[in-house]
Design goal:
This protein has 201 residues and is an alpha/beta fold. The protein is built from 6 helices and 7 strands. Bound molecules: S-adenosylmethionine. S-adenosylmethionine binds next to loops.
């Protein structure tokens, strides 16, 4: 099959990598939720051969991701697993969970399930890194994000850009503490949460 390709991944992969690279410590296990085409996974795994990058997505995306893995033959890129955030999560724990451009595609229940599932799947002190557009203080951060929202709703009325404050409350209830909130080009952000560890008794 032809390898799936989206231009946006080519455009944002370097700026995302600049932010996430310090978190990609040698030896860590990364789970990517919603790998999509697999382009981000290939790029980040290739630049960081000392980490292991587990791809995942819903069933219809898995053959496309697999086609990239077969093509690149990267030893540290793991065959995609089926992961719908509302269904069964891996039994393995990961040091870092990454997702790009997925929370606004999900409906509210899916976004909640994504955060709750992530918290369950992270090693203590592990990081959850989410890239994409987010709303703040009850509104859009730009006119282009407002137009993007209209376009999203045409495809799926239940999808939409999520409010940072709502996501952060869900995250806190799951034991995730906001670690960083970084402005990115094109009205996007990178949100980084860290799983809090309970103090020893
Ligand atoms: C716009 S694509 C982003 C893909 C890729 N991460 C990127 O940045 O190009 C949205 C992704 O969210 C995934 N997605 C939507 N709902 C999901 C769910 N309930 N569980 C897991 N993935 C989901 C889709 O399958 C798709 O891969």
């Amino acid at each position: 099959m032809n390898r799936p390709f989206v231009e946006s991944c080519e455009q944002n992969r370097d700026v995302i990598h600049q932010v996430i690279q310090p978190y990609l410590k040698p030896g860590i296990e990364v789970l990517e939720i919603a790998s999509g085409t697999g382009q981000h996974a290939v790029y980040f795994a290739d630049l960081n051969p000392q980490i292991r990058w587990q791809t995942s997505d819903r069933a219809e995306y898995l053959p496309g991701i697999q086609s990239w893995l077969t093509f690149t033959k990267l030893q540290n890129l793991i065959d995609p697993i089926l992961l719908d955030v509302c269904l069964k999560w891996p039994s393995q724990q990961y040091d870092l969970i990454f997702t790009a451009n997925s929370l606004h595609i999900m409906d509210d229940a899916e976004a909640r399930a994504c955060i709750n599932g992530t918290a369950q799947c992270l090693e203590p002190s592990g990081f959850f890194i989410a890239y994409g557009p987010f709303n703040y203080n009850g509104g859009f951060t730009s006119e282009s994000n407002r137009r993007f929202e209209d376009w999203l709703k045409l495809n799926n009325p239940k999808s939409g850009i999520k409010h940072f404050e709502v996501l952060n409350e869900i995250a806190e209830q799951s034991g995730l503490k906001l670690y960083a909130d970084i402005t990115m080009p094109a009205n996007n952000r990178i949100l980084i949460w860290q799983l809090e560890t309970l103090p020893d008794n």
